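REQUEST ID: PR-0412
SUBMITTED BY: lab tech R.K.
PRIORITY: routine
TASK: structure prediction, single protein chain
INPUT:
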Amino acid sequence: MGGSGDPVTAPASAAPEGQAGQPDRRVVRMSGTGEATAVPDQLSFGLTVTAKRLDLDEALSSSSATMKRVLAVLEQYGVKEADVQTTGLTMYPEYAYHAYDPPTLTGYRVSQRAKVRVNELRQGGKAISAAVDSGGNGVRVRDIRLEVAEPGVVLEHARDAAVASATAKAEQYAAATGQSLGDVVSIRELGSTPRYAPERTTLTAFRDLANAELPIRAGKDDLEVRVEVVWAFA
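STATUS: complete
OUTPUT:
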């Protein structure tokens, strides 16, 4: 705002286009920031099932059988078919190497990988422990994360807060100059910052939680949104 108390007129490039020779529309431009709390309510992890056999078909069949067995166990913890996403399949021969003789084929290794989502966080530790126990040495769990099921809902609250912040400041400046806000000319999101980052932990920690029947305590973080709103003076 200028020292004389008159509102600042926006540059022609930022104001709505008018007809040639007409003065620019007097507007007030204000930015606002809003935050909303995100609390993790579900868990995801990467699941790898590996089998090695002398025959490739046998290795593939063995890994598939183990994967099916693990997924069947996970159903007891609310993991449905839609909660499992296949992420990879690798098949390759393995050899024993000798100093003076050609390599000897020792078998074929097949690895199947999937991402699993547990929708109830309190079941996460038990689900991971059950997956490892049912699959035996051929099962590995990695990339364990605590996640928010619907981060978009949290962002909506942050956007509402950002617009409210910008509006409150604009109304204050308008009142200080004896004016009032009119219609919104434009609004744009300057950026959103999901300061919530999925948390990771180790397999050992989750198995300990499951075996001790302790709840998983998730932390909380904030999502931040910045907006810019332009009003015409009434």
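NOTES: The domain at 42-147 is CATH 3.30.70.2970 (Alpha-Beta Plaits).
REVIEWED BY: pending
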